[in-house]
Amino acid sequence: MATLSIAEPNMKNLLVLGAGTAGTMVVNKLRPLLSEQEWAITIVDQDTEHHYQAGYLFIPFGIYEPEDVVKPKKQFIPDRVRMLIAGVERIDPETSHVHLDDGTVLEYDQLVIASGTVARPDQTPGMQGDEWRKSIHDFYTLEGATALAEKLGTWEGGRLVVHITEMPIKCPVAPLEFSFLADAYFRSKGMRDRVEIVYVTPLDGAFTKPVASKQLGGMLEEREIAVETDFYVERIDDEAKALVSYDEREIPFDLLVTVPLNMGAEFVARSGMGDELNYVPVDPGTFLSTSWDNVFAIGDAANLPTSKAGSVAHFAVELFTDNFLRHIRGETMTDLFDGHANCFVESGDGKALLIDFNYDVQPLPGKYPFPVVGPFSLLEETTMNHFGKLAFKWIYWNALLPGRDLPLPALMSMAGKKEVPV
Amino acid sequence: MSLATLAGQEIHVDDEGFMTEFDEWSEDLAGRLATNIGIDLTGRHMEVLRFLRKDYEAEGETPTLRRVATAGGYPTKELFTLFPKKPAKKMAYVAGLPKPVGCV
User: Fold this and answer.
1) Per-residue pLDDT tens over the stretch A118-138
2) CA torsion sign, A376 to A382 to A387 to A389?
3) What three-state secondary structure class fits A379?
4) Among 3.30.565.10, 3.40.50.170, 3.50.50.60, 1.20.210.10, what is the CATH number of A121-259?
5) Burial code of A160-173, b = ≥16 C-beta within 10 A, e = fewer?
6) What is the pLDDT of residue B102?
7) Which residues in chain B have their CB less than 8 angstroms from residue A232's CB?
């Protein structure tokens, strides 16, 4: 087996697995802060394309085209970072080596696992059978979102079921947004009366946190979208076209738009480093592995009790940078992450809501980022929020991925928020 | 956080009734908690509850439904029969553990 030497023998190696939102930001933030004489940085990814995944939502409705959400990964990786396109076979955390699927073996001093989470339709019986991409669709991949755009364009109506297989999922508000946008889309086509929309969730309400769940649940009701809660799918009967739950409830559909089970990378499981869903157990404040002192996991790859979303990865990397510098100097990591998440929730008809929350504080109404003046409104549908959501695509490509500082605090702030009795 | 009295014993519970003190739980108490939510405990229920308690002690958090099924080896379908409708929540309640964080 070949060991690829990319550093001088007296240099240290930082190895980042995954060049998605979190991994790309990590190398952009750390390269200027780590001496090039002392540290070599390598980033590994199996794909050459970077996808703005938050944009998938708009593709089925013809608001974005596939080319809006794809750029070459290489464009976002700094020159002084070595990028390798390869799959990861496994990590050997005991000897600090990573085996790539082309036989290359990489040694590391510090490892950052940023391999995200992916949709796994293969994990639910009947999902990926004869009806896959016919009457059963998803929008969590570019192929899925594109196929769904084609389907919606010619669909004549019937029972549309929007479904979440199991939590946690990437961007937990996306299926709600999909439902709101579907309602607006069918209204604009003059066919809403021919479409019944049902929202099926394993949660006990529209969302995970009480105040937002009430608000979002009310919005489903206003749009005459029926909600089926506490629904754990066991299988899909693709002949009868029905979701079947473990407690034997059946929900028939003409068109199913499902969010398949989300799981972390298989190499995490092969390396014996993951939980049941292949997420890496880490300290929720520092992202340091609970088992190895030179392994971090950041973004969706980690088992953090917060949303799996680009905004979380962004705030997390902001805090991680200084902590990492302390860690390699042998100091205590002092900037602890609070689980800060922040999502625009597209609600149709050119409006959106914004939610801002963390491990301990649920989404509350108010203004963001500044009290009174906003300009964004929390938990309230406004046109300004919608523009914020659309503007975010530009910010993502041009400021966030390259690691430029955004004028938003990494930790959540209570300024501008109003307490609400539940 | 408040105090409740169950089977003549004072226990600490949160505002949804989940016990908050790991050591206040006993198998006797489990029977009473189960009755509160309409479940008659069997030996099989107790097996599952013991797994939940042991796993919580080791991991520091209430196991998810998936974890009870995969790490514990109790099929999901059976968990829905033993603890109908909301098994994750009901198992945690009867096992005297915090409400599962579930999700975010």
Assistant:
1) 999 999 999 999 999 999 999
2) positive
3) coil
4) 3.50.50.60
5) bbbbbbbbbbbbbb
6) 59
7) 65, 76, 80
Domain range for B7 is 2-94
3-state SS assignment for residue A308? strand
Q: Is residue B104 part of a domain?
A: no
* Level-2 CATH architecture, domain A12-116+265-328: 3-Layer(bba) Sandwich (3.50)
Measure B71 CA to nearest chain A CA, in Å: 8
Fold match between domain A12-116+265-328 and domain A121-259? yes
Is beta strand A12-17 parallel, antiparallel or unpaired with respect to A110-113? Answer: parallel
Residues A216, A178: contact at Cβ < 8 Å?
no
Domain chopping of chain A, boundaries: 12-116+265-328, 121-259, 345-400
Q: What is the pTM of this model?
A: 0.94
Cis? peptide before A172, omega within 30° of 0: no
Q: Is the peptide bond before A121 cis (omega within 30 degrees of 0)?
A: no
Active site residue B53: no
Cα–Cα–Cα angle for A373, A364, A162, rounded to 5 degrees: 115
A246 touches chain B (CB under 8 A): yes
Which of A166, A234, A306 shows the shortest C-beta gap to B77?
A234
What residues of A are in contact with residue B60 (Cβ under 8 Å)?
Answer: none
Residue at B101 is within a domain: no
Alpha-carbon torsion angle A147, A152, A157, A160, nearest 10: 60
Q: What is the ipTM of this complex?
A: 0.88
Interval A60-89: pLDDT, tens: 999 999 999 999 999 999 999 999 999 999
Task: Supply the Cα-derived Rg of chain A in whole angstroms.
Answer: 22
Find which of A247, A360, A362 to mutate to test the B interface (most B CBs within 10 Å of its CB).
A247
pLDDT at position A305 is 86
The answer to whether A277 faces chain B, any CB pair under 8 Å, is: yes
Q: Measured between alpha carbons, how far is A282 from A372 in angstroms, rounded to an integer?
A: 37
Mean pLDDT of chain A: 94
What's the pLDDT tens digit per position in A192-213?
999 999 999 999 898 878 888 8
* Residue B30 counted as domain residue: yes
Only one residue has tokens 């496994």, namely: A90
Please state, as a whole number, how many other Cβ atoms lie within 10 Å of the Cβ of residue B42: 11
Any domain includes B69? yes
Domain count, chain B: 1
Decide if A276 and B104 are in contact by the 8 Å CB cutoff.
no
